[in-house]
Amino acid sequence: MPFFIDVIVPLPLEQRFTYSITDEEQRRLKVGMRVAVPFGKRKVYTAIVAKIHQTPPLRYDAKPTEEVLEDQPTITAHQLKLWKWMSNYYLCTEGEILRSALPSALLIESETVVEPHPDFNLDLIDDIETLSDQEYLILQALQKQSLLKIGEIISILDKKTIFPVINAMAEKSYILVNQELNKQYKPKLQKYLRLADQYSSEADLPTLLNQLEKAKKQKEALLQFFNFKAKTQKPISKKLLKEKAGVSASVVKSLIDKSILEEYYIKKDRVEHHAEAIDSEIQLNEYQEAALSQIQQGFEELHVCLLQGVTSSGKTEVYIKLIETAIKKGEQVLYLLPEIALTTQLIKRLQDYFGDEVLVYHSKYSVNERVEVYRHLLNRTKGKIVIGARSSVFLPFKNLGLVVVDESHETSFKQFDPAPRYHARDTAIVLASIFGAKTLLGTATPSLESFYNVKQEKYAFAKLSKRFGNVVPPKVELVDLKDQQRKQKMTGHFSETLLKAIESTLKEGQQIILFQNRRGYSPILECNTCGHAPQCPNCDVSLTYHKHNNSLRCHYCGYHIAMQTKCMACGSTDVTTKGFGTEQIETELNALFEDKVIKRMDLDTTRGKYAYEKLISSFENREIDILVGTQMLTKGLDFRHVKLVGVMNADSLLNFPDFRAHEKSFQLLVQVAGRAGRTEEQGQVLIQTYNPYHRILQQVTTNSYDEMFKEQLDQRRHFKYPPLFRMIKITFRSRDLNKMNEASDWLALFYRQIFKANVLGPEFPAISRIRNEYHKNILIKIPPEQSLSKTKSYVKSGIDKFKSIAQFRSIKVQANVDPY
Questions:
Q1: For the chain, what percent of residues have pLDDT higher than 90?
Q2: Three-state secondary structure of 641-676
């Protein structure tokens, strides 16, 4: 009886697909292995075997697989279980999860290639003029090389639409069109030297040295080779042998040519952290000990514990103690962080305790580097501790014992695009529960959802209320910008109070962090004559001015033009910038403090692979006096010599069109304040605002989290928002505005018949057009007593019905569960 496999294809398709396999393949295959399968007319994809069975598909004939790509599974049973949960919970497909979960180098896809037809010969063609110019160019190129890729044909013909030409040539039997598997991952091989086999016994060595009696340098190189091997037993490279023996490359090459030494390859890791564990015991203070014991007691009853520790209270030491316990039990640990910037400092701290057992996984690593980390975990060759950003939840853990989610309140843990639109904190909790592991959520300012779960006794709770070493919390002051402007005490965007504080801090030789949550020089360039501001042609936003390359740039689609000296509408030269970003703060500081080193940390300055590392280590080594940055500066970084933190404008955070704006503002301002005064001397935090009597700002100055939580929860209860109500956001995208309006109204009406008043919209978001596509949203609120799974099934059936209507097929629609 024939065998079949159900596979997950890396495409946004609902169901799994069935392929036939031979008896020999059936003996080789296991669930979780990668296979190359044909899909559609011409493409071949890497698919994951999800089930092996003997039931043929009902509605189509099962195609055979192209190739089995490996001997061992790449995906574990635990991963498949997590994917199933994610596809149900986040209303996405397993194919979309597969695309995110596997490093792209393991997702081999076919590439269309063109080769000459075996029966065709260009020289034997009777009338060359019957060929079109394009056909002749392709056939000429095929005379020089055996096959051409699509990209090469595009550049030969200098046009993008090439398939009509290729298909016509294939019909005339001039060429063959095939699919070639593009195997991306290549292991890094390093070349070393060893003694040839014929000289492996010690008896042969005197004869060998006698042979080299006249070649003194070669003999010296060989003696150094023996000496090095005797001392270290490590492999030796050409370069090292040259240095040890003090000879040239030609001497070593002569030994290889004489077959005395031979070259061989060793597979090496692309990322190697040469670190040894420093055998030093962590000494916890009494508050940390109390928090650790609260966590351990909490874990006895519940699987998730929230640790609320004020900034600089030493949460990391508590994490290390818990990690140590898990490692001793032979378990793996996942340490999740919201920002890649945070991994830079943390890697060093964890390696001091655990050596090279620490692996790092995030998007700044190349595809091949991510494959190596993935394989180490899969084969358990290395890495009991993984530090990573949100994508680390997809790694193939075998024996996960503990998950630490640091800065667990951060919105960076939520993925918005592309699908799966998952929240890494919530996914990590489910991943831990699949293994029966424990999850610790650590933060100074818990999200309302997490703290509400503590109040509902779903999570255990532990608290660290004192800073490490009994350091005094920083003094937080609000600076009234209205008052400063009235008294004409402003210098650029700096109040007199902030400038004086900067000057005195610099005199003391201490460092300063300035926070402005907007990059670029200025968000708006405006004409003073007619009021025109240059807009992005593809998005409904104004262009941001970047001074360093004198350009106007859109932060949504990347469109950019040169800085305009005249108004584009009326031609007036009276144009000025409005608003300010990190680049303008940096420029003003350079003018005010010419002898000081001022650097900027935002998306523009951290694009390189090691950019975070260089900036953070320079700041730690006190090479930088003032660091200006966006919110990537505010999270969990530990700088020992920062005495002053300045927030340039708190109002831009508070006046944001989002139901979480006040909660986020509180979290962000408390976190940025926590960067100041982390050693003996008390730090100072100055927050510039036009509204110093705002409730949230007053709560930040006194660090009143409980008060903020109570007020925000009352508002959420009143307006029916999370954590009391759940939410699903349906987003429509289309270039045709009228058709999108009609489509969104149709689906909103469908949902209103089921969910009544709990459907909001359809409504345009704050930015209604991005990359020439209009956006519109429907918000569905789910009351606590309403079944979440039934609600999702209705939401899904609504989207399925919508997609089946012919006139709406061009409209893109996507569901985002928990869109906050």
A1: 54
A2: CEEEEEECCCHHHHCCCCCCHHHHHHHHHHHHHCCC
Characterize the bridge pairing of strands 773-782 and 726-734.
Answer: antiparallel
Q: Flag whether pLDDT at 774 surpasses 80.
A: yes
pLDDT at 321 over 80: yes
Outline where DSSP puts E strands in 59-106: 63-64, 67-68
Distance CA 347, CA 307 (A): 21
DSSP state of 414: B
Q: Is 800 exposed, middle or buried (0-12, 13-18, 19+ CB in 10 A)?
A: exposed
Say which CATH topology domain 475-519+582-715 has: Rossmann fold (3.40.50)
Q: What is the pTM of this model?
A: 0.82
Within 8 A by CB and 6+ apart from 494, the residues are 502, 588, 592
421 CB-contact burial (10 Å; exposed 0-12 / middle 13-18 / buried 19+): buried
**Topology adopted by domain 286-469:** Rossmann fold (3.40.50)
pLDDT of residue 267: 62
Start-end of H helices in 279-366: 286-301, 315-328, 340-354
Residue 290 burial (CB count, 10 A): 15
Which phi and psi (to 5°) does residue 264 adopt? Answer: -145, 165
Domain boundaries, the chain: 3-108, 113-182, 201-259, 286-469, 475-519+582-715, 522-579, 726-817
CB 723 within 8 A of CB 452: yes
As a whole number of angstroms, the distance between CA 311 and CA 44 comes to 51
Instruction: Map 673-699 to HEC letters.
Output: HCCCCCCCCCCEEEEEECCCCCHHHHH
The CA distance from 393 to 259, in Å, is 50
Closest CA to 4 of 63, 46, 84: 63
Question: Is the C-alpha dihedral spanning 377, 382, 386, 391 positive or negative?
Answer: negative
CB 384 within 8 Å of CB 357 = yes
Which H or E element spans position 153?
A: helix 150-157
pLDDT at 720: 94
Question: Rounded to an integer, what is the distance from CA 367 to the centroid of its chain?
Answer: 12
Q: Which fold, 3-108?
A: GIY-YIG endonuclease (3.40.1440)
Instruction: Tell me how far CA of residue 593 lies from CA of 115, 261, 590, 596, 646, in angstroms.
Output: 65, 61, 5, 6, 16
Question: How does pLDDT run across 89-105, given as a tens digit for each residue?
Answer: 999 999 999 999 998 88
- Encoded tokens for 598: 């001022």
Q: Do residues 44 and 36 make contact, with C-beta atoms less than 8 angstroms apart?
A: yes
DSSP code at position 708: H
CATH class of 726-817: alpha beta
Q: Cα(491)–Cα(577) distance, rounded to whole angstroms? A: 16
Helix pair 705-719, 661-673: axis angle to 10 deg: 170
CA distance 515 to 519: 10
Token match 């996405």: residue?
92
CA dihedral for 222, 224, 229, 230, sign (positive or negative): positive
Q: Do the domains spanning 286-469 and 726-817 agree at the CATH topology level? A: no
**Quick check: 149 pLDDT over 90?**
no
Q: Which residue has the tokens 């609120």?
A: 781
Assess contact for 187 and 267: CB atoms under 8 A: yes
Q: Are 649 and 688 in contact (CB under 8 A)?
A: yes
pLDDT above 60 (res 436): yes
Strands 67-68 and 175-182: unpaired
- How far apart are alpha carbons 71 and 73 in whole angstroms? 7
In this predicted structure, what is the pLDDT of residue 80? 96
Q: If you write DSSP's letter for every residue of 714-782 in order, what string do you get?
A: HHHHHHT-TTTSEEEEEEEEES-HHHHHHHHHHHHHHHHHHHGGGEEEEE--SS-EETTEEEEEEEEEE
Q: Tokens 């635990």 correspond to what residue?
A: 78
Q: What are phi and psi of 229, to 5 degrees?
A: -65, -40
